[in-house]
Amino acid sequence: MSEPSDAPATPASPFADLAAFVALPRVAGLALSADGRRLAVAVQTLDREKTRWQSALWEVDPEGRRPARRLTRSAPGESAPVWAPDGSLLFTSARPDPDASSDGEDPKPALWSLPPDGGEARPVLTHPGGIRAVAVAAETGEVVVTASAMPGATDAEADAERRKQRKEAGVTAILHEAYPARYWDADLGPATPHVFWAGALPADPAAGAERPVVELRDLTPDAVPPAGAGGDLRLSPDGLLLVRVESVPDGPAGRRDRLLLVETATGESRALVDDPLAGLGAPRFSPDGSAVVCVREAMSTHDDPPDHTLLHVDVATGAAHEITPGFDRWPSAPQFSADGTTVYFLADDGGRHALFRVPAEGGEPVRMTTDGAYSDLQVARDGSALYALRSAYDEPPAPVRLDPRATGQHPEPLPDRGSLGALPGSLHEVEPPPPTGRRCTPGWCCPRARPPRTRRRCCCGSTAGR
Description:
31 strands, 2 helices, 4-stranded antiparallel β-sheet, single chain
């Protein structure tokens, strides 16, 4: 007769134990290779002590035939995967550089490259302020990055020296001379985000050879606190142009975003879209680099909510036209199709974050998916498929493959590290009937519905203009 064990029993399901539920893997950051044959995702899991999350990169088969396999492993973790045209996988990580001498400081996030045929990853770009965002030219593989730089630092060496002097002097105070001083729960400054041009990354050096140093050229030398040069940035396929979001003052205590177009060879920039009545964001180049699609968010007032729409912008002339007129949803994350004739985007609709498509010249958007919330949309360059992460109340985030032309889609998840089986219980959607016995008055609309742009549906089912 066996003695009773004091060890806790393993729960039959992660939903039967709160600790097991919290420890479920978390999937984010989907990236598709240029040839469409490889998908990478960042998967977060709890460390051995169950005290913090660690992120690692996994490869997912786009066809769904092979199981997912792990690509990276380190204590600091890896994130923000992006594929270069040669098949190498770029990512950011604060893992220590094996070839660098330790100065006792914790390593800053650097840009690493994993060879296309496997092997050890190597650091390719570093900066004293750490590498944050990365953009890669789809055809040439040239790279731009975002990193924080101290005021007055003209290069990486000067930036490192200023940080060292500040630490040795015991200075932790921040002098704010402009608004804003904080973003959510974090103080801004003293360093400011800058955009740096790295160009084509060097090849892996031969054994025993010295690793080449990549010189970063500041494309935003005049960036000043508090906003600096952060925001979305995208390179044209040929790497000659960069489009980025710049935050500019709007009134005594407000800010709005505009789009800047930067020539990477010279650093010269011009405003591509600068609308005093709206903010611009989420820019993406067309496959031939001749156009940009972006999101325009009209400023809200005391009487009207903000309105989101998509703009198609000609790069050469700056001429812009709306491609979702009358669409009473808020489009986000637009991307061109492989041939540039269609724009795919995401938008909230009926309690879902659905995938839509619309002709690039404008027209009526078509909803392509049924249930779930989609994110991290990826378009195959040959036009054969779309990929995204989908989640729902009863589905954890998982990569899926979509048909670029079909509607009413709810595809099966691709095998990945965070996949789960059938969930316990059942989910039912309940829609209450509209209120009755209430008189509709001008300017009042049903609180359950998102206000359309020009007409509002009242509680009685009729529409009232404003």
